[in-house]
Design goal:
alpha/beta, Rossmann fold, 2 domains, five-stranded parallel sheet, 13 helices, 9 strands, binds norvaline, globular, binds phosphoric acid mono(formamide)ester, single chain, four-stranded parallel sheet
């Protein structure tokens, strides 16, 4: 049996493949109606999605993507399955492998994602963990490509929490040659091991000030200050407003970026915290395109996963 094509993290897939997936996502975006009419890559196939955390975009975009590819999607959660009564993730992965063709897991623990994938005979997609959110960053990359053309050498600023989405941005920068500048509060830096690899790659720099990250950037990217997996009592977030306040994306920070720069956010957003309403609802905001692009990249990811089995 072939090894299943898991989509777990951008730093585990090579840059050429990520480029091909973005190209394919672009085709799906351009020809949405035409490609929908063809027998799709998902014809007769089933996606089983297991959500241990809430979701709007990931859940809906994957379900619609699978439908438009000619397949179907099931949404499961812990309480509605025997996992709620203690059946292990490993056994659940083994069983889902006998029914479905591809699986997606959203969980607060990356270790659990690895465990699930390790026991799965079908491809597993990372639908977000505490450590990464690769499908989101693929949509962000498509958004940047649509706006500016090439990604290589383009400057992007990450400002705010050094969280799961930041980590996937760092992975993407290393794989695709994007020049990423990261500004996070000292207590909320991305993991040291990743930072050291990233800085060694020459594509990622850590800076102290949001304005230093934004200078010359084509995109300023941020995310919520209260991620689902974060525990305020242990993650240094107890006084989060004070810690994060200097990292809010406001119009003056956008003005420090390159002319024509866009604001990006994976959503859900909290106006008045990580971003002002003026910026997210203003003319430079690309957040609705990012959300739409989730649909197009999910198709490319599903197609790649399914083509391996
Ligand atoms: N951006 C994102 O993953 O959104 P959901 O949590 O709604 O899936
Ligand atoms: N960093 C956020 C992303 C939500 C899509 C979280 O993990 O909650």
């Amino acid at each position: 049996m072939n090894q299943p094509r898991h989509f777990l993290d951008l730093d585990r897939l090579n840059g050429a493949l990520l480029g091909r997936l973005l190209e394919r996502a672009s085709a799906y975006k351009r020809d949405r109606t035409a490609l929908r009419a063809e027998p799709g890559a998902g014809h007769g196939r089933t996606l089983a999605m297991l959500f241990e955390k809430p979701s709007t975009r990931t859940r809906v975009s994957f379900e619609v993507a699978m439908n438009e590819l000619g397949g179907r999607a099931l949404t499961l959660d812990r309480q509605g399955t025997q996992m709620g009564r203690g059946e292990s993730l490993a056994d659940t992965a083994r069983v889902l492998s006998r029914y479905a063709d591809v699986a997606l897991l959203r969980t607060g623990s990356h270790t659990q994602l690895e465990e699930f994938a390790g026991h799965s005979e079908i491809p597993v997609i990372n639908g977000l963990t505490d450590r990464s959110h690769p499908c989101q960053v693929m949509a962000d990359l498509l958004t940047l490509r649509d706006r500016f053309g090439s990604l290589e050498g383009r400057h992007v600023a990450w400002v705010g929490d050094g969280n799961n989405v930041a980590n996937s941005w760092i992975h993407a920068a290393m794989q695709l040659g994007v020049r990423l500048r990261v500004a996070c509060p000292p207590s909320r830096q991305p993991p040291a091991e990743l930072v050291s690899r990233a800085v060694d790659s020459g594509f990622v720099d850590l800076v102290d000030e949001p304005a230093a990250a934004a200078r010359g950037a084509s995109a300023v990217v941020t995310d919520t200050w209260k991620s689902m997996a974060a525990d305020p009592s242990v993650d240094g977030l107890a006084d989060q407003q004070a810690v994060f306040r200097p990292f809010q994306v406001d119009q003056s920070l956008m003005d420090a970026a390159a002319p024509g720069a866009v604001f990006m956010h994976c959503l859900p957003a909290y106006r008045g915290e990580e971003v002002t309403a003026e910026v997210i609802d203003g003319p430079d905001s690309a957040v609705w395109d990012e959300a739409e692009n989730r649909l197009h990249v999910q198709k490319a990811i599903l197609e790649w996963c399914l083509a391996g089995s």
